[in-house]
Design goal:
Blueprint: E1 4-8, H1 13-23, E2 27-28, E3 30-34, E4 40-44, E5 52-56, H2 63-79, E6 84-89, H3 108-119, E7 123-127, E8 142-145, H4 148-155, E9 163-167, H5 173-183, E10 187-196, E11 199-206, E12 213-221, H6 225-236, E13 241-249, H7 255-261, E14 266-270, E15 282-285, H8 288-300
Parallel strand pairs: 1-2, 1-5, 5-6, 6-7, 7-8, 9-10, 9-12, 12-13, 13-14, 14-15
Antiparallel strand pairs: 3-4, 10-11
Helix pairs in contact: 1-8, 4-5
The structure holds ribose-5-phosphate.
């Protein structure tokens, strides 16, 4: 069997280290140089020849820097005769740019997928893409994991006898329903319209939340605009308590502090994005075991779909 070689970009060293620890493989060194003209250069400082190379890089802030770094690492691995170049992208930020919903706009999700393939990426492993069809933007195989098992495992320890799962929008209702099914709970969804990056309207909630304990489930919390709008509707409709869960806890613009200062009982996310802030209301669940398991299965050619169950 070919040797595995795991490299990490600079976006999330803690997650890379945790994945390598689960895989019981060393993390291979990478040298990143920035020239006076601001261009980057990457050197993979370990043999790639005929290796199964995995490059771990989450597309988190500064997204463009981390993206270029990932592209350069893939290019370096391909140029060093890697047998296969696998990009492990726990958070694929450009997934939100997935449709032409205004005149003359770019569709970054597709473009970045093409750039990765052009750079030499043969396979992608990612988690909870903003919409499932983004998977189809890639012309190479994509293993698209979710974090529902981790999130459901957390809430399973709670008394859920009066609980309902609420998706902020109909687009995520299917995932929320899958999460609710794992916990044996009913599901409801908001009728959401996004006006801009910082403004959303949720005009109604489809389903019964009055008097219930609510778990809001979303793919990501960025500015928190969606969650704050949903909190208003849920309070108006008489929800008894509200917890918030998501896969990608990005928490831009102090969203974590603002959310923690509200009446939500808890905030749960995973570590697909690095989190500097801590808060007693916040629980961060690790996706490193799932990613390590997927990497191991990809490496030995076993089915990854068992991880979706
Ligand atoms: C949007 O459609 C997504 O599902 C999330 O609701 C959104 O990305 C969250 O962003 P924000 O927290 O800025 O509303």
């Amino acid at each position: 069997m070919r040797e595995i070689a795991v490299f990490g970009g600079s976006s999330h060293p803690a997650l890379t280290a945790e994945i390598c620890a689960h895989l019981a493989v060393p993390q291979r060194p990478v040298l990143l140089k920035r020239f006076a003209n601001d261009c980057l250069e990457v050197q993979l400082q370990s043999n790639c020849r005929e290796r199964d190379v995995f490059i771990i890089q989450s597309l988190v802030r500064p997204v463009q820097e981390h993206l270029i770094e990932l592209l350069l690492m893939a290019d370096a691995a391909r140029g060093a005769s890697a047998a296969r170049v696998n990009a492990v992208i726990p958070h694929y930020a450009y997934a939100r740019s997935d449709k032409k919903d205004a005149p003359r706009i770019s569709i970054g999700g597709r473009l970045v997928a093409d750039l990765l393939v052009t750079a030499g990426v043969d396979r992608v492993l990612t988690l909870n893409l903003h919409s499932p069809q983004v998977h189809g933007f890639f012309s190479v195989p994509v293993d698209h994991l979710h974090a529902l098992r981790e999130l459901a495992g957390h809430f399973r320890q709670r008394d859920l006898s009066n609980t309902v799962v609420v998706s902020p929008d109909l687009g995520y209702a299917k995932s929320a329903a899958a999460f609710a099914r794992r916990l044996g709970l009913p599901v409801a969804a908001g009728a959401k319209e996004r006006v801009s990056d910082s403004e959303v309207h949720i005009t109604a909630i489809i389903g019964d939340v009055a008097g219930h304990d609510v778990i809001i489930l979303d793919d990501e919390i960025s500015r928190g605009t969606t969650v704050f709008e949903l909190l208003d509707r849920l309070r108006e409709q008489g929800a008894r308590s509200i917890a918030v869960a998501c896969t990608h806890g990005l928490f831009a613009d102090n969203a974590l502090d603002k959310l923690a200062a509200s009446d939500v009982t808890e905030i749960v996310c995973t570590n697909t994005a690095p989190l500097e802030a801590e808060h007693p209301k916040l629980t961060v669940l690790s996706v490193a075991p799932a990613l390590a398991e997927a990497i191991s299965r990809i490496h030995i050619g076993e089915s990854v779909s068992a991880l979706f169950d």
